């Protein structure tokens, strides 16, 4: 005999929301609903119960965060609350955008636009040479990711390049093949960059390691990270970002490395990247800066042991140095905050961040990310046809 099914279970259906990774939400809903409580914020649900949708919106975007606030996406900071009227209006705007985006007409328009962008991007990569792409030092120790448009799934997918990018010729071969709308590389260098494991200091990093059967040393050996600053934070336009970039360059040379040979990159959007590829944390710790002696002792001690016991479990020596680098750079970022500089404060200390490759296309703006001199900061970005 077939097992009996309760009336409640028979009426349950699956949420129809499609996540960014292309997978469908797994939460069950009642028969008369098509979205779960976490995704019920389109125009239909807003008209049914605007107060409920507005409260849901307030849970994540209820604060008027200061640009330097490091708790965006939460309500745990001291930033002022957004008024009820503004929350209701913003929730309505998001509901309209969500419903419009899910219509067949809009999906068709977006699909055709992405196909045209892909065609132009492929033509651009076929027209340039390998010398037009600027790779970072030791590119073979970095992970490269590309964002491509899947014409069958009709969405943007993220792929890791499973290849050792030793020079621009190798990368250009992949660019001509996939025609990605965005290309990034990891700011850190790794022993096995194509297969980096989860951060052992993250909330569930050790559990993910065990679940995937990864090797602690092979899949998580950190070899170092230079100093990266992303000046694309709460900027209204490119001129405002250029003015802030000039301040960042001056501040960095006055407070971190006076002899720095900085690389300035126009991202292709309105922001800039300021990079010191010659930065070596150990050299700065040896300069007898405040609190550097204790940090330097911990850094040197990490070479004498194979693993360390922490609250996260056993971690490798390279993981300890990775965490030391993260905390040291956080202290520098705090100084930048106190001096009123506005940058993306999460990029600099995070050893697992990615940044756009100069010479590649910025798919949203259809412009080229490129290395520039400090004198050309106010010039416009190069547009592809």
Compact overview of the structure:
This protein has 385 residues and is α+β, with helices and mostly antiparallel strands. It has eleven helices and 16 strands.
N-to-C series of helices and strands: HEEHHHHEEHEEHEEHEEHHEEHEEEE
Report the CATH topology name of the domain at 114-376: DNA primase, PRIM domain
Count of distinct strands: 16
User: Going across the major beta sheet, what is the strand order?
Assistant: 4-3-5-13
Highest CATH level, the class of the domain at 114-376: Alpha Beta
Secondary structure class reads alpha+beta
Low-confidence stretches: 1-10
Shape: globular
Portion of residues in beta strands equals: 15-25%
Helix content: 25-40%
User: Under the CATH scheme, which architecture of the domain at 114-376 would be assigned?
Assistant: Alpha-Beta Complex
Would you give an account of this structure?
The protein is of the alpha+beta class. It has a domain at 114-376: DNA primase, PRIM domain, CATH 3.90.920.10. 36% of the residues lie in helices and 16% in strands. A four-stranded antiparallel beta sheet has the order 4-3-5-13. A four-stranded antiparallel beta sheet has the order 8-10-9-16, with helices on one face. It has a two-stranded antiparallel sheet with strand order 1-2. The chain is globular.
């Amino acid at each position: 005999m077939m097992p009996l099914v309760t009336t409640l279970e028979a009426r349950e259906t699956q949420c129809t929301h499609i996540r960014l990774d292309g997978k469908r939400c797994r939460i069950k809903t009642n028969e008369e609903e098509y979205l779960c409580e976490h995704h019920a914020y389109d125009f239909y649900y807003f008209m049914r119960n605007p107060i409920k949708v507005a409260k849901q919106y307030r849970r994540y975007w209820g604060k008027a965060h200061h640009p330097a606030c490091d708790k965006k996406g939460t309500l745990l900071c001291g930033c002022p609350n957004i008024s009820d009227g503004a929350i209701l209006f913003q929730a309505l705007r998001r509901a309209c955008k969500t419903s419009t985006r899910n219509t067949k007409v809009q999906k068709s328009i977006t699909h055709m636009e992405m196909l045209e962008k892909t065609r132009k991007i492929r033509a651009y990569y076929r027209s340039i040479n390998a010398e037009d792409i600027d790779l970072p030092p030791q590119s073979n120790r970095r992970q490269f990711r590309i964002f491509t448009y899947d014409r069958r799934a009709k969405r943007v997918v993220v792929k890791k390049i499973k290849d050792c990018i030793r020079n621009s010729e190798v990368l250009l071969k992949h660019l001509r093949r996939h025609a990605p709308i965005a290309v990034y590389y990891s700011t850190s260098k790794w022993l096995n960059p194509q297969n980096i494991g989860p951060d052992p200091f993250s909330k569930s990093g050790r559990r993910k390691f065990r679940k995937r059967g990864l090797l602690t040393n092979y899949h998580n050996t950190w070899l170092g990270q230079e100093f990266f600053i992303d000046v694309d934070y709460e900027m209204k336009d490119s001129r405002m970002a250029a003015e802030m970039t000039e301040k960042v360059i001056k501040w960095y040379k006055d407070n971190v490395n006076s002899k720095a040979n900085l690389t300035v990159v126009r991202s292709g959007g309105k922001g800039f990247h300021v990079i010191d590829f010659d930065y070596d944390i150990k050299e700065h710790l040896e300069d007898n800066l405040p609190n550097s002696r204790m940090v330097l002792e911990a850094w040197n001690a990490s070479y004498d042991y194979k693993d360390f016991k922490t609250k996260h479990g056993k971690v490798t020596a390279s993981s300890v140095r990775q965490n030391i680098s993260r905390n040291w750079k956080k202290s520098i970022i705090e100084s930048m905050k106190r001096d009123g500089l506005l940058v993306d404060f999460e990029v600099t200390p995070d050893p697992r961040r990615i940044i756009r490759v100069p010479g590649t296309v910025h798919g949203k703006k259809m412009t080229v990310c490129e290395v520039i001199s400090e004198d050309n900061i106010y010039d416009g970005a190069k547009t592809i046809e």
